[in-house]
Amino acid sequence: MTVGAYAGRGVHGRIVELLGRRVASGELPEGAVLDLRALGAELGVSMSVLRESVRVLAAKGLLDSRQKRGTFVRPRAQWHLLDADVVRWRASGDDTARLMADLAELRALVEPAAARYAARRRTGTQLAELEDALDRMARTRGDPRAHALADLEFHRRLLAASGNELLARMDLLVAPGLVERDVLVHSADPAADPVPAHRAVLDALRSRDADAAEAAMRALLAASDADVRRLTAPGPAPSDRKDRT
């Protein structure tokens, strides 16, 4: 999965980013009609660049164009909320707390069960892949985005180790928000060490202890949710965070 697919892609990417953030933040509310000519003048870009950017955002469910009505912001219920760019735009605005709360609930439904199955079904190769992802997490602690991608790989490998093809594809639901969650937490607290909590999950998988694997995953997710709640709560964040994921 590409994270932030349109970041850094020249003029076109810049306009997609700018308009995407305006929509996701509510600066352009649902139903708002875009004056493309005025936007072109404001941003100093051609109509062809704007139209191509609108097409990209329409594919993500944020915008639509109709005869007589023009280009407008679609209802939130029609946004592609699992799209990596939409997740990133929401995470960078005022929607962070809701996004992270929804992600925490989704993960709590999926990952403890996946850990339980993985303890019974994992292969030696899958254990080695999980160990490799954990090693990369340890090596990248000073780089929030690289660390987030290593963390994501650990959780993807765990879902795959469940032996359930449908559970394995739940990474499509979890991945975009998990990356942004990790970047948020590790940018705020670079000293946080998530490796021990992940190691507890891996150790339970290695010993094929399904109860311990589920419990370790629940503990990891609970601590993760607590860290995010502290960061997204109004007022200054406390300095004693102990991040787990």
What can you see in these coordinates?
- Helices cover 66% and strands 4% of the residues.
- The protein is built from eleven helices and three strands.
- It has helices at 10-25, 36-43, 47-59, 84-91, 96-121, 124-139, 144-161, 165-168, 171-188, 195-206, 210-232; strands at residues 33-34, 63-66, 70-73.
- It has a three-stranded antiparallel β-sheet.
- Strand 2 (63-66) and strand 3 form a beta hairpin.
- Helix 1 (10-25) packs across helix 4, helix 5 (96-121) runs parallel beside helix 10 (195-206) and helix 6 packs antiparallel against helix 7 (144-161).
- It is elongated.
Low-confidence stretches: 236-244
> Total helix count?
11
The rounded distance between the terminal residues' Cα atoms is 19 Å
Following the backbone from N to C, one meets helices and strands in this order, namely HEHHEEHHHHHHHH
**Which percent range describes the beta-strand content?**
under 5%
Class computed from helices, strands and strand pairing: mainly alpha
Main beta-sheet strand count, sense and barrel state:
3 strands, antiparallel
Widest beta sheet: strand line-up: 1-3-2
How many beta-strand runs?
Answer: 3
Tell me the helix content: 55-70%
Task: Report the average pLDDT across residues.
Answer: 89
**Whole-angstrom Rg:** 20 Å
Q: What overall geometry do the principal axes of the alpha carbons give? A: elongated
